[in-house]
Amino acid sequence: MTRFKTLEAKSVLAQAEMWTDTHPPTLLTPAEVWNMALLSTCNLESYKDLAGIRGVSDRTIAAQMRSARLKLEARTNLFAVAEALRRQLIPSFERWEPGLSQAQIIPFPLDRAQAHKA
């Protein structure tokens, strides 16, 4: 990594640290936010470069990035499911209440002939 690239990355890291001090992240940890900011802004070539800028080990960076990826994927999947439910692309399930049979809880999709009768 060139000296200029290193100085640029340290500047971005300082800005990211100040930002997380004033805007505490809710989904990701501050370190995960810093990693994402550096990777998306500074065009770093590897986690080794990122570890050198942050002053931590490659293994720490890899663990933080894996954690961030899993959190973001889970949140994305939740939004996708919520949107599919809203658009009625997948069936919705009601909560079970005492006295209901399973057939009453799970609404099965009707075929076209039954839908016209209903």
TrEMBL record:
SUPFAM superfamilies: C-terminal effector domain of the bipartite response regulators. One of its GO terms (molecular function) is DNA binding. It comes from the Bacteria. GO terms for biological process: regulation of DNA-templated transcription. InterPro entries: Sig_transdc_resp-reg_C-effctor, WH-like_DNA-bd_sf. This is HTH luxR-type domain-containing protein.
